Description:
single chain; 504 residues; alpha/beta; five-stranded parallel beta sheet; 18 helices; 21 strands; 36% helix; globular; binds threonylcarbamoyladenylate; binds magnesium ion; protein tyrosine phosphatase activity; L-threonylcarbamoyladenylate synthase; tRNA processing; TC-AMP_synthase_SUA5
Amino acid sequence: METKLLSANGRDLKTAAEIITGGGTVIFPTETVYGLGADALNPEAVRKIFKAKGRPGDNPLIVHVHDIKQVDTVAEEVPEKAKMLMEHFWPGPLTVILKRRDSVPDEVTAGLKTVGVRMPSDRTALEFLKLTGRPVAAPSANLSGKPSPTSFKHCVEDMSGRVDAIIDGGDCAVGVESTVIDMTASPVIYRPGDITAGMIEDVLKEKVTLHDSVADGETPKSPGLKYKHYSPAAEVVILKGSVDEVIDCVNRQSVSCGIIVFDQMLETVKNGLSRGRVIKTLGDRKSPRDAEANLFRVLRDMDEMGVRVIFAPEIPDNDKWAAVRNRLYRAAGNRVASASEFEFKSAHEKPKRFLFVCTGNTCRSPMAEGLFNEICRRRGIAAASASAGLSVAPGSVLSENSLSAMKRENIDISGHVPTALSLDMLKEFDVVLTMSSSHKQMLKMILSGNSELSEKVFTLGEYSGLGIEISDPYGGDISVYESCLKEIKKCVAAIADKLSYDKV
Ligand code: TXA
Ligand code: MG
C-alpha cells in the first residue's frame, strides 16, 4: 500500500479526513503521541488498525472526539464526575472510560461493555478530527510492542506502507500516552500519564486508585496491562548505585551499551565513560515533564545506534513521576540491578535449568520435576530440572499417591528424596517455578534484598502462560493426585513447547 505523507495544512488535513470517511487509516499527531486512526463506527476500517500495528485483538482502542458533545455518540451515559473531569482537563491528555453505546463496534472495545474516550489538545489533531465529523478510534501509531512514536520520523519508520496516510505535526509536546481513568464506578487509573492522580483528586475531591499492573492470576480490567510494552530492541536494565558505580558498571560490560542519565549527571558520566558507549539524557532531574517528553525518543535513538543493553536510572516512586516510571520499568520488564555487581546476561537467551518449588517437596514439585525431565528427554530439549521445598520436615518421604500417579505416566520417581530449598540452589538455577502464588510471595519476600535471585521466581502457571494455580493434593485420594498431575503436565508441556520453538 502506498502511504501518503501529508503536512498539517488545511488542504492536506481535508485529504486526511476524506481517507477516514472513506474507511481508510491515517496517522495523526496528538499532544501525547501519534495515533493511528480509523472511523470508530466502521468495523472494517477499525480492523485495518489492528492489522497495521500487529496488535492483539483483545486490546481495546481509545476513541478520539473533537468536542465534549460528541462523547454521546459512543457513550451510553456520562456520570457527573466524569463530566467534571472532561470539563476540567479536556482538551488534553486524559482518557475517560465510560459505559459504551451498543452502536460502538466490538472491534473498538474488544468486546468490553465500556469505551475509552479522549479529546486531544493538539491543534492539528482537533482540526483533523473536526473535518472527519466522526469519532476516530486510534491507538498509538507504533508497531505493537515498540515505544510509542513521538515524532513524524518514528511513524514513517514503523508504518510506511502499512497505512493510507501520515500527517506531519512535528514533535509531540507531552511525549507519553494519556492518563487512562475508569469512571464507570469509583475512579481507577489504569495507566498513569501527564495528568496525575493528585491533579484528578483535586478536581473530584475524592481518592483515586492507581491500578497499573496485574497481580498473579488476576484478569486485567484494562487489557493493555498484560502486554509487554514500550520495549526497544535492546534490553533495558534499571541500575541502582552511586554515579561512580554506574560508570564502572557500564565500562565493565563486554557488549555494546548505552546509558540514560539526567542533565545533572551528564558531564560526570560522559567524562567517565569508555569510548563507544552511548549516552542520552532525559532532561532536568527535577522535571518529570522533561523525562516524559524525551523518554520514547531516547529509547528509539538507542536502538538506532545498535546498542544491545540500555542502562537507565531509578525513577522516584511518587505521583508526579508515575507516568515515566510506569513506561520505563515496563520497558525494562521490571529488571532492576545493583551497579556494583551487574554482569550482562541476555534475558532473551533460553533458560536451561529449572527448579520447581512447593511446600514439602513430597508431592507437587517432584511430580513437576519428573514430568519435565521426561518430556525434555523424549523431545530432545536441552534443559533439565530439579525440585525443592520451602519447609521440608526432616525424614519426610515422597508421597505414595504421587509415586502411583507418576507410574501411570510410565515415569518412575521412587528415587526422589525431599530436599530443602537453599540459597545455593537458587543461584544455580536459571528459573525458579513455584506451584502456587503463596509460595512465590513467600520466596519473593525472603529474596526482597536480592533482585537478581528474586527476578528468577515465577509461578508455574504464570511462566507457562496458562495462569493456573497448582493446589495442594495432600490428604486427597489418588484421583486428586491424578488431576493435580494433569494440571502440572499442561504447564510443563507448554514450557517445553516454548523451549523447543526454534526447532519446529
Ligand atoms: O495518548 C493516548 O492515549 C494515545 C493517543 C494516540 O491518543 N493513544 C493510546 O492508545 O495510547 P493505546 O491503544 O496505545 O492505549 C490504550 C490503552 C490500552 O492499554 C488499552 O488496554 C486501554 O487504553 N483501554 C482502552 N479502552 C479501554 C477500556 N474500555 N477499558 C479498559 N482499558 C481500555
Ligand atoms: Mg500503545
